[in-house]
Amino acid sequence: MSESKRKRSWAEPFKIKMVELVHMTSREEREAAIKEAGYNTFLLKSKDVYIDLLTDSGTSAMSDRQWAGMMTGDEAYAGSVNFYNLERAIQKYYGYKYIVPTHQGRAAEHIISQLMIQPGDVIPGNMYFTTTKLHQELAGGTFVDVIIDEAHDPVNEHPFKGNIDLEKLEKVIKQHGADKIPYVCVATAVNMAGGQPISLANLKAVRKLTQTHGIAIIHDMTRVAENAYFIKEREEGYADKSVAEIVKEICSLTDGATMSAKKDALVNIGGFLAVNDEKLFDLARNMVVIYEGLHTYGGMAGRDMEALAIGISESVDGDHIRARVGQVAYLGEKLIEAGIPIVKPIGSHGVFLDAKKFLPHLSQEVFPAQTLAAEIYLDSGVRTMERGVVSAGRNRETGEHNYPKLELVRLTIPRRVYTQAHMDVIAESVEEVYLNRDKISGLKMVYEPEYLRFFQARFEKL
């Protein structure tokens, strides 16, 4: 094989300037810690965690440029210069006209839900997300899943499992009427499906359909750059486009967006609501004063807005996003080689273990994904999280558990934090648990909060 044809290794497009020391606990210490946490990895103390894959939200490592930007924080209560820097960055890279900063993404979800949803409304979307769905329900709406069927099949290798099924969407519009649908919620790099992207061809078709009926599209853009990378890699006609160009095209096909900047945009706190309609913007900046803070900071410090403005520009850099998604792919491929059942294709922000196939002897009634997350922690101190029946909550009418087709454990990779050696340690731990899977018994829930139970629920071993 010639030199030019040989597969070459890649490395992260950064070098390390500061390190944070971590501590490996003993098996006995981990047994005590997970029991105290009620077998819920969200309730573990950070000091007891060796490699933290709980979430990629707010866990990224910021760059030297971002840290330098924080030193220029203008903490004026009104009219902070950092707000205007952030506004320009959003307009430049995403193309939305008006922005309302919030302390994080769910605050933006709350505002848009309260402003646009009336009791009895229906909100179609490409698979639910926990906080998004809850805010829609609290506003009196009902979420309806219109994602393609392939998204619910872990082994189906459709390249764009985040796509909306146009027939399903048309059926919802016909059944309820366009006046009962305030907007279609379109997520890029769909989290609950395993970080699966939506194609631009599909988004354009959705846009055409919604415009016919006068329905808006609100974009959950938390991981839009990751979605854009997959479009560049997989969708015909986009190989020569930059990630930044694709990101802007995605946003141009929507009417507004909610953003948890703690993911793609590489900051530890922050978010925003972005819209193109001036009247809606007027209402939103009025509401943000009630719940968050003045419309020129909205719950964020000036220094955090500056770090976010810089993070947006870094997030669409081709080298960065290739390395970010590439590290996830490296871990996923290691697990596939070991015979571990995961969601395919490998997603953008994490590897999702198929707990139903990993623990086939456990029914969903005994929370196999929650069980598996606890077992991985016990083996190695690696913290993961459940995305199955616990996250799905209960049926509002019957009070019974919702039983999703996907019962997953998410190994979420923080951006610019861990090395390839960490990925090897994670893979070895998952493989060890898999080899001993027949010895694993399930859990029973002993405490359940009213909302978003996966954060605080407690369990005991059966």
Overall domain count: 2
Helix content: 25-40%
Second CATH tier, the architecture of the largest domain: 3-Layer(aba) Sandwich
Provide a count of the helices.
16
- SSE order, one letter for each helix or strand: HEHHEHEHEHEHEHHEEHHHEHHEEHEHEE
The coarse silhouette is: globular
> Strand sequence of the main sheet, in spatial order?
2-8-7-6-5
Averaged pLDDT: 96
Counted beta strands? 14
Report the major sheet. Answer: 5 strands, mixed
State the CATH topology of the largest domain: Aspartate Aminotransferase, domain 2
Terminal CA distance reads 56 Å
For the CA atoms, what is the radius of gyration?
Answer: 22 Å
The fraction of residues assigned to DSSP E strands is 5-15%
Overall structural class, as computed from helix and strand content, comes to: alpha/beta
CATH superfamily of the largest domain: Type I PLP-dependent aspartate aminotransferase-like (Major domain)
The CATH class of the largest domain, by name, is Alpha Beta
Q: List unreliable stretches of 5+ residues.
A: none
